Amino acid sequence: MEVIKKASEQKRHVMLIGEPGTGKSMLAKSMTEYLSKNELQDVIAYHNAEDPNEPKVRVVPAGKGREIVAAQKKEALAKKQQKASLVTTIIVVILMITIAMYLIEGDTSIILVGIIAVAILFFAMRYSASSRQENYIVPKLLVGHDDSEMPPFIDATGAHAGALLGDVKHDPFQSGGLETPAHERLEVGAIHKSSKGVLFIDEINMLRMESQQSLLTALQEGKFSITGQSERSSGAMVKSEPVPCDFILVCAGNLDAIEGMHPALRSRIRGYGYEVFMRSTMDDTEGNREKLIRFVAQEVAKDKKIPHFDKYAVGEIIKEAQRRAGRHGLLTLRLRELGGLVRVSGDVAREKQAPLVTSDMVLEAKRIARSLEQQIADRFLESSKDYKTFVTEGESIGTVNGLAALNTGSSMAEFSGVVLPIVAEVTPAQTKSGGRIIATGKLGEIAKEAVQNVSALIKKYTGEDIANHDVHIQFVGTYEGVEGDSASISVATAVISAFEDVPVDQTLAMTGSLSVRGLVLPVGGVTAKIEAAAEAGIKKVLIPRANLRDVVLEKHYVDKIEVIPVETLGEVLEKALVGGAKKDSLLRKLSDLVERKVSIGVPPGSRPTMQ
Question: Which of 41, 470, 489, 551 is the most interior residue, by most CB within 10 Å?
Answer without folding.
Answer: 489
